[in-house]
Specification:
The chain has 74 residues and is an alpha+beta fold. The chain has a domain at 6-55. 15% of the residues lie in helices and 34% in strands. The chain is built from 1 helix and 3 strands; from the N terminus they run E-E-H-E. It has one helix spanning 31-41, and strands at 6-13, 16-23, 47-55. A 3-stranded antiparallel β-sheet has the order 2-1-3, with helices on one face. Strand 1 (6-13) and strand 2 form a beta hairpin.
């Protein structure tokens, strides 16, 4: 799965914002496929505002999203 393109799917479920990381076998994740994946994960919920963003950088477990890291060196 590491070689497959990654996508961040953002959506709202029952008025709560959520995200999920998706590996897809193509360079683009169609919106209808993203919606299907979300609805399968939350079958009896109200799902709205599905958005797809491609993730181009490798997954680094030492870096936490939203946390600024000071560059090393000058």
């Amino acid at each position: 799965m590491k070689d497959l393109p990654r996508f961040l799917v953002s959506f709202i479920v029952d008025n709560q914002p959520k995200t999920m990381e998706v590996f897809w076998n193509s360079e683009a994740l169609p919106m209808n496929e993203a919606e299907n994946l979300v609805r399968k994960s939350f079958p009896n919920s109200s799902v709205t505002d599905v958005q797809v963003t491609s993730i181009h950088h490798p997954n680094n477990p030492d870096v936490h999203p939203g946390h600024y890291q000071q560059p090393e060196g000058n």
